[in-house]
Structure formats: C-alpha cells, structure tokens
Design brief:
The complex is a heterodimer of chains A (108) and B (116). Chain A is built from no helices and 11 strands. Chain A has 108 residues and is mainly β. Chain B is mainly β and 116 residues long. Chain B has no helices and 11 strands. Classes of the chains: A mainly beta (108), B mainly beta (116). At the A-B interface, β9 and β10 of A face β4, β5 and β10 of B.
C-alpha cells in the first residue's frame, strides 16, 4: 500500500542553521514525490517536485530510492520559512498521498 | 478569480443535517480534486474529476458523501446525515491538464466543517 511518513511533527531550529525535514514513502511503482507548504493563514501550495530537480527558496529534495526517502533540506533557515510542510506521493496521476506534516519553527 | 475559491469558509452543522460545499476552480482547469483534512493530519484524497467526469471516487468514506461537477467547472461536495467524524477541513484543488496532478495542483483555502 502507498504510504508517506513524516516522523517529526515539530522541528525547531535557529535562524541560519541547516534544516532537514524527513519524508519516507512506501510505493511499489516509480514514485513521483512533492513537497507542499502551508504558511500561516495561507493555502497549501506546491514547493517543489522531484522530477523538476529544482531549488525553490533555497530548498532542495533528493529522491533516494534505496532508502525510500525524499527529505527536504535547506542549508540556512530563515524566519520566513516557518510553516507547515507536507510531503506527498502522487499515485496513478490523480491521487496524492500526503504525510501528516511537519511544522517548522525558525527561531530568531 | 485568481485562485481556487471555496465556500462557505466555515460551516457548523447539527448531526444529521445535510451540507453542501462548493468549489470554484481556476478557469480552464481540467482536473479537480477534493481532499479531507482532519485535525493534525495531512489531506486525504476523496475524489477526482476530469472535466465533468468523476474518474475516481475511491476515497469517499461512505455513501453519505457525494460529489458532482455537472458542467466541468464548479463542483459541489455533498454530505448527507452528517456525523461528528465528518468534522474536518475539506480542500478543493484544480490543475490545468488532464493528467491529473502531474501538473501543479492549486488548492483552495478550504471549508472547515464542524458537526455538533
């Protein structure tokens, strides 16, 4: 069965520190993985997707099929990065499986 | 409008009452999705439309849940005989192309349903 696990409900770091939000998945096929972000009082929005191999707002995520992981990383966290982050697996082109989310709190 | 619009933003229903939640997708978007997000959880898939066709309704939790998109634009999620476990935020999303969410899915702000 398809599953996405985000083991940390809350991650607190100081401004300028590196941050890594963990995501593990289980899926028998070739996965398409995404990170979505929800800033306070805003709607859920796409941050990045693994097929694009892009860096958005300094964030990157590498798909590791051996470890079935898609961790989100940023070398130097900023206060404006504080938000709720969801890892998502796309299944059958039309269905996202979301993790339960990690709240990132960047302290000044 | 500029984005996906959902109404109402908040809905309080008495147990047993029927409710209807509306979603206005971005104009021209082919794909439309409904998700249910319980408190402290990630969104869970309910159903998917491509234009007016409901191609996947495997996530609807019971036959009390019904969704439609009759003209391929606005969609309505209806919940009959609401129960307390239906309390959640209901999210609607749309994307431009017919390949579902392979293109970026844009989410609405959600409708928070509270069943008392």
């Amino acid at each position: 069965a398809q599953r996405v696990t985000q083991p940390e409900k809350l991650l607190s770091v100081f401004k300028g520190a590196p941050v890594e939000l963990k995501c593990n998945y289980s899926y028998s096929g070739s996965p398409e993985l995404f990170w979505y972000v929800q800033y306070s009082r805003q709607r859920l929005q796409l941050l990045l997707r693994h097929i694009s191999r892009e860096s958005i707002k300094g964030f990157t995520a590498d798909l590791n099929k051996g470890e079935t992981s898609f961790h989100l990383k940023k070398p130097f966290a900023q206060e404006e990065d504080s938000a709720m982050y969801y890892c998502a697996l796309l299944y059958n082109f039309n269905k996202f499986y979301f993790g339960s989310g990690t709240k990132l709190n960047v302290k000044p | 409008g500029a984005g996906v619009s959902q109404s109402p933003r908040y809905k309080v229903a008495k147990r047993g009452q029927d409710v209807a939640l509306r979603c206005d997708p971005i104009s021209g978007h082919v794909s439309l999705f409904w998700y249910q997000q319980a408190l402290g959880q990630g969104p869970e898939f309910l159903t998917y439309f491509q234009n007016e066709a409901q191609l996947d309704k495997s996530g609807l939790p019971s036959d009390r849940f019904f969704a439609e998109r009759p003209e391929g634009s606005v969609s309505t999620l209806k919940i009959q005989r609401t129960q307390q476990e239906d309390s959640a935020v209901y999210l609607c999303a749309s994307s431009l192309e017919g390949q579902g969410a392979r293109t970026e899915a844009f989410f609405g702000q959600g409708t928070r349903l509270t069943v008392v």
